[in-house]
Amino acid sequence: MIVGDPSETASRRSTALLFAVVGSVLVVVATAMIWAARLSLAKNSYVSGLGATGEVTAPVFNAALLMVSLGGLSIAVALRRAGRPDEGGPRTSRARLLLVPWLLIAASSLCFFAASQVTCTYECPIPASPRFTVQDAAHISFAVLGFALACLAMIGSALGSRVAAVRSMSWFAGASVAIVAGAGGLLSLAEVGQSVGSWLEFAATTIALFWLAGYGLAESLSIGSPADPARRPVAARGRQADASPEAVLG
Hints:
Blueprint (H helix, E strand, L loop, with lengths): L5 H35 L17 H25 L11 H5 L2 H17 L16 H27 L3 H27 L3 H28 L12 H9 L2 H5 L1
Helix pairs in contact: 1-2, 1-7, 2-4, 2-7, 4-5, 5-6, 6-7
């Protein structure tokens, strides 16, 4: 027998989709604004440099970063609504319990909100520069932490998403962002190949933002599908409980 109230499922789905669509629209529009700002700038610039104090692109970029944070929070709500408190199964693991995507995305969004309010100084000097200030340190800390939390959310979704395509997409996005952003960051710190490094950072940012939009929509659309834990047969849940370590050990 399949359990789950159809009306409750419909409510979950409609609410999750509303937040996911709003969040995804904000994130996609923000991505377009970030690229428009970058392409309008004649000089080389890293992502945070677009929003630096005194930069011509700062108003547009910081508005886009604020939209990313609001969009991320909206998607986090959608993911929380899409989840189930009784969700478990063979994919449940200690790592998955620690890497809860909606919590990580919410925390990452708050970091980006802070980064949009505390911008770096003109041209975003690196830590080794004599021009580096406390303001720069605060901005970089929030931005790096936000990126790190987003990568952890990708790992969490890769381990625990109910949608196979999302798991594959999350592994690809997580690996790509880690490698591409890491390479760009190292080039920045080494002050070599900065033109290449800046484009790598923009590429990593774009991958992460499109993953976020796609992930929220995919998880919301999966509500009510056969993969939804709310539709899990009672007998299957009983077998899952019997297969727990406690049951096996007697």
